[in-house]
Design goal:
Blueprint lengths: L1 H16 L1 H30 L20 H11 L3 H16 L6 H12 L4 E3 L4 E5 L5 E5 L8 H5 L8 E3 L3 H4 L4 H19 L14 H8 L1 H22 L3 H18 L2 H16 L4 H25 L10 H8 L8 H10 L3 H15 L4 H6 L9 H20 L18 H6 L4 H34 L1
Antiparallel strand pairs: 1-4, 2-3
Helix pairs in contact: 2-3, 2-4, 2-13, 4-5, 4-8, 5-8, 5-10, 8-10, 11-13, 12-13, 12-18, 14-18, 15-16, 15-20, 18-20
């Protein structure tokens, strides 16, 4: 056991010291207040002040607040639909800070580099619209089907191909562009750091020049060279593959990872076994895998959110909030189940005292008092259900959602929201979401009970000796 713990400790230490994993983890954590604000916007416009799908259908007076809907719709778009911009800037800032840079400029440069590999001009003829008929069949139409050039325009060979528009598509600013943003932020900041540390590339200004101006000139050449290199990478990619960098990264990296891991129950179960093994030796397992978990599962959540707001079919069963709802309630190892089991079945005063102290934190998904108080760390008997419980509950959660018993999980929820209420909000205010989470809470209690009884027998035997 000691050798195994030592190996896991070394892996944990490496993960904790890896600047790229830390930058990705910190970037997502720092952007979380924005995404939760966006979820509030979705709740307002779809669950509360909505006459067809929300509370407005049952209680008409609330529709008097509909005048405020544009505010919350804009809040949702500026956060969830623009997550790639925010996360790219935050990750770029984290990488630069790890490289010894200070100030906010690296975040701005990260945005500039991302923009350089993001298309901004599009053929208007490709704009499309669709509707779903009474039989549930979707019908799509492209704008060029309706463009007919006649008269003077036709004489000058104006065609459907002549119409274009500029801007940034939401498919790039939203979750589908996340991997591109992460890669550009990391690669771009490392290039910038390499050029920045080359003294021959620095423009030295006289001492009487203000420090702000002097610094601007000092980073001018490194900035220019970094932009040229990143732009060249984007151009070579397009010339070699026929696809722009965003599409290539999404199709070659992001989408396959989401298919292999993100919406794969077996892969999710393995991930939680790994998380809990770290916890078993006293290492924060969620922090260890956050840099991998967030980029894979968060885009799935936002794809569901986008489908929900557009009243389309929800595409994914698994996503970031779903696994939090079914495998992290009450804290890692779903230890709220152990708290309840102790309060009902325990005969030892010391265990009951720790469980009593842990009730309130457990309701807000904080379980360090249990993890280190019982303790669960390096506890061979209780570590079995500690690892097993989240695996069992996420499997049951998957069955409940995929069978239609539980509505799809479509909204991001603060991780500290209490179980049951969490399920209600995450499913867009659906009561069956709360019922589904109540079921897995009960299952977690059942998983812990036999091991708790065995552990207390072991404790009694130790006390007798």
């Amino acid at each position: 056991m000691d050798a195994f713990a030592d190996k896991l400790g070394r892996v944990g230490a490496w993960c904790g010291q890896n600047k790229y994993l830390n930058a990705i983890k910190n970037g997502f954590q720092n952007f979380m207040p924005a995404t939760i604000s966006g979820a509030v916007g979705v709740l307002w416009t779809n669950v509360l002040v909505n006459s067809s799908t929300g509370l407005g259908a049952l209680w008409k007076p609330i529709m008097a607040l509909e005048v405020l809907n544009p505010i919350f719709a804009a809040m949702q778009y500026a956060t969830i639909s623009c997550i790639t911009i925010g996360v790219t800037m935050l990750v770029a800032s984290e990488i630069a800070e790890a490289n010894g840079e200070t100030g906010s400029y690296p975040a701005v440069l990260g945005f500039i580099l991302w923009m350089m590999v993001t298309p901004t001009s599009f053929a208007a003829k490709n704009l499309s619209a669709s509707y779903i008929d009474a039989k549930g069949i979707s019908h799509g139409f492209a704008l060029d089907q309706f463009i007919k050039v006649t008269g003077e325009a036709a004489k000058h060979e104006i065609t459907a191909d002549s119409f274009s528009y500029s801007g940034i598509m939401s498919s790039y600013t939203g979750a589908t562009g996340l991997f591109t943003g992460l890669i550009v932020a990391i690669v771009g900041m490392e290039l910038y750091n390499m050029f920045r540390k080359n003294d021959s590339l620095k423009i030295r200004m006289p001492e009487q020049v203000p420090p702000g101006v002097a610094r601007a000139f000092e980073v001018l050449i490194p900035t220019c060279l970094t932009a040229i290199v990143v732009g060249a990478i984007g151009l070579v990619c397009q010339l070699a593959t026929g696809a722009e960098l965003n599409a290539l990264i999404y199709n070659v990296i992001q989408k396959p990872l989401q298919n292999i891991i993100g919406n794969n129950l077996v892969a999710v179960c393995i991930m939680y076994v790994i998380i809990m093994l770290f916890w078993c030796v006293g290492i924060h397992g969620n922090n260890m895998v956050a840099a991998v978990k967030e980029p894979i599962f968060r885009p799935l959540l936002y794809a569901n959110t986008a489908a929900y707001t557009a009243h389309h079919e929800i595409p994914y069963v698994m996503n970031l909030t779903m696994i939090q709802m079914f495998a992290e309630f009450g804290g890692s190892g779903v230890t709220i189940g152990l708290v309840i089991a102790i309060l009902i079945f325990s005969k030892r005063e010391d265990n009951r005292t720790i469980a009593g102290i842990s009730i309130v934190p457990g309701l807000f998904n904080i379980n360090e008092t249990m993890t280190f108080g019982i303790p669960l760390v390096l506890n061979p008997i209780l570590d079995i259900p500690f690892i097993l419980a989240p695996v069992v509950t996420v499997i049951i959660g998957y069955i409940l959602v995929s069978s239609g018993f539980c509505p799809p999980i479509v909204l991001e929820v603060p991780w500290t929201m209490p179980p049951v209420l969490f399920g209600f909000v995450a499913t867009g205010g659906k009561p069956m979401g709360a019922v589904a989470q109540l079921i897995v809470v009960a299952v977690s209690v059942v998983v812990y009970i036999p091991f708790l009884i065995a552990y207390e027998k072991f404790q009694a035997k130790q006390a007798a000796e």
